[in-house]
Amino acid sequence: ALEVAKNYLDSCDKNAIIFTNGDNDTFPLWYAQEVENYRTDIKVVNLSLFNTSWYIDQMKRATYEAMPIPSSLTQSEYRTGTRDYTIIQERFKDHVDVKSVIRFIRDNSSKAKIRTSAGLKNYCPTKKLKLKVDKSKVMSFVPKQYHKKIVDEIKWSIKGNGLYKNKLMVLDILANFNWERPIYFAVTVGKDNFMGLENYFQLEGLAYRLVPYQTNSINGQ
Question: Is 80 exceeded by the pLDDT of residue 217?
Answer without folding.
Answer: no
